[in-house]
Write a structure and sequence with these properties.
69 residues, little secondary structure, 1 helix, 9% helix, flat
Length: 69
């Protein structure tokens, strides 16, 4: 998910107007996400769908946008 602010800036700000000006975009990627149901409201994730510790690799290709499009 792209963001104009770092995770630390977002965490430190109590309100959006407290965020500093930004000239950058930060991209955060998840290699995996745990399923719905984390005992916050209801049962836990079923064992066969629970995330287990394992090595993961993400490949990201960034290229310039074609201005003609």
């Amino acid at each position: 998910m792209p963001s104009r602010h770092t995770a630390q800036e977002l965490s430190a700000a109590a309100h959006p107007h407290e965020l500093p000006p930004s000239q950058r975009t930060w991209l955060y990627l998840d290699a995996a996400q745990n399923g719905v149901g984390s005992r916050a409201c209801g049962p836990d994730v079923w064992p066969e769908y629970a995330l287990r510790p394992e090595a993961r690799t993400l490949l990201l290709k960034v290229s310039a946008a074609d201005p003609a499009r």
